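Why does this matter for the project? Reviewers at the last site visit asked to see concrete outputs rather than summary tables. In response, this paragraph embeds two records directly. Each consists of the residue sequence and, immediately after it, the corresponding structure tokens. Nothing has been edited or filtered.
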Amino acid sequence: MHKHWILIIAWLLLAWPLAAAAAVPVGKVEVRIKGRIAVDPSGEVMEYRPSVDVPPGVEAMLQSMVRGWGFEPVVVEGRAVTAETGLLLVFDAWDKGGDQLALRLKDVAFGAHEGGRALAPPPYPVEALRSGVNGKVVLLLRVDGEGDVLDVAVEQTSVSDRLPHDRARRYAEAFEKASMGVARRWRFGVRERVDGVPTGGTLRIPVEFFVGQHGSSLAPGPVRQAPWAPDLPTLPAEALAALDSRDVRAVDSALRLIEPVIGATL
């Protein structure tokens, strides 16, 4: 077995208890790595640094992958400039036999919230909790360059399926009120710098309410647009409803890849 495979397996076993039932993961294990990426005026990667400790062999592979990416130049007033932002890498990892581990890039997000502290969760609406009703509210937050929340809007609300329409709407409104109330008090780190200047933007944040089995079936609600930016890119209703609370990311990062990278393997 190659040395870097040993490092990855040891890292997975230490960092992800889900994988600890066997010497190597039997099924797929999702691995999320947050970090920072900086791009020069030509669109080449100047720097990449993970925000978590990873084994040297793993970091070497990550560096090789990320530094091979190309970006559209970030232009401000007709001038190409440097840009730095948060980066979230999501991998599927699994044992492919023969003492080999596979890592495939499943998702990548720029402008992701790194967050030195956890965001305070909203209170669970009492009636929904007593009735065992689950829900998920996907919020859009407009933040300034310092990470303060300026505006909050609901992009989608999903509640437990098989509820009558009037009850579903009542629970949805309760979930929305609780989510928006706490979100206005959240504060984020500086997520992006363009030409050295902190920039604001819009973040998409799923807020989950689950009692009992997490991930139980939800009926996706309609998709709504942020009133401050009606042309922001959105996702299909089913994709929004499938996001989990770790999927905090920017909707409008300045960094744009020239070519797709999803599916790359390490």
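We now turn to the second protein, recorded in exactly the same manner.
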Amino acid sequence: MPSLPNCPKCNSEYTYEDGNLLVCPECAHEWTLESETEQSEVEKVYKDSNGNVLVDGDSITVIKDLKVKGSSAVVKKGTKVKDIRLVDGDHDIDCKIDGIGAMQLKTEFVKKL
């Protein structure tokens, strides 16, 4: 009988098979062996509006006027942003914009400097 891998979430050794899923009884995490290998091999690549690859610390320019939610402020086209941080989620970029503060932007509205 092949040994089952430890839980990727809590590292518990008490995992068991349930159909094609592996289940951890301690934290209730469910996964498949295929998804575990896919996640380790695939890393998300962030690209700007022109297809250039973005990395943490890059400088970008906003290519479109963007309304700031919950405020009357607008991030104008051509605004330069330094030292971005890439994150997973609905918006891909965390940054600070002078005069506005902390913002989250989508990569489709920026270009790399």
